[in-house]
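User: Can you help me understand a structure? I only have the sequence.
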Amino acid sequence: MGAFFVLGAISVILPLPGSNFPPAIAAVLMSLAMLEEDGVVLMIGLVIGTLGLVYTMLVGSALAWAAVAATRSVLGM
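Assistant: Let's start by predicting it. Here is the structure, written out as tokens:
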């Protein structure tokens, strides 16, 4: 759980479009689930957080690919 919160926090820090909301909602749901000892809400939070992290990785890799392609285009490689 702690590692998942750390990954979500890193995802929230990154300035990618639309990458802040899912991990933030997942953190709220998981925190409430731990307080209420509710496994169903915890699993919902984990699913939302996982989808948010996947989205962040996809957007980040697309931006990195675009940056590499632009650099190669400018340098004529």
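Now, to help you interpret it: Residues 18 and 56 are 8 Å apart (CA to CA). The two ends are 44 Å apart (CA to CA). Let me know which part you'd like to focus on.
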